[in-house]
Write a structure and sequence with these properties.
Cytochrome Bc1 Complex, Chain D, domain 2, 54% helix, 0% strand, mainly alpha, globular, 5 helices
Length: 123
């Protein structure tokens, strides 16, 4: 009986940890970086991901829970921009590398995306 109680308590703690861990907390971003990122996003990302970040017929929404920081960390965005990425969550096809953006500019785009995610939440 003690073993069953121990297992039950362990399962409850595991489930509670999953529920608490599923909440996404994004820190407010630097306003100047967000402003710069908004312009860069409009110029380099919005055509496929939408000016409102809600996607188009060419690319997914950046407000999808798939893009929350615990699933796609900031480094995943940088990698995708620099190297492209094979389709793995969506049926939009592979994303090509985006030419002409340096890491600092991608950092600004990420700040913009994270701030919009923080303000608007995830779908």
């Amino acid at each position: 009986m003690k073993r069953a109680s121990f297992v039950a308590v362990g399962l409850l703690l595991l489930v509670a940890g999953c529920v608490v861990g599923s909440e996404v907390a994004i820190e407010p971003q630097d306003p100047e970086l967000v402003e710069a990122g908004a312009e860069l996003y409009a110029a380099h990302c919005a055509e496929c991901h939408g000016s409102d970040l809600q996607g188009t017929d060419q690319g997914p929404s950046h407000l999808s829970i798939i893009y929350e920081p615990n699933h796609h960390a900031d480094g995943a965005f940088l990698f995708a921009v620099q190297n492209g990425v094979r389709a793995h969550h969506w049926d939009f096809g592979d994303m090509p590398p985006i030419e002409g953006l340096n890491p600092e500019e991608v950092e600004a785009i990420i700040a913009f995306v994270r701030e919009r995610q923080r303000v608007e939440g995830f779908e």
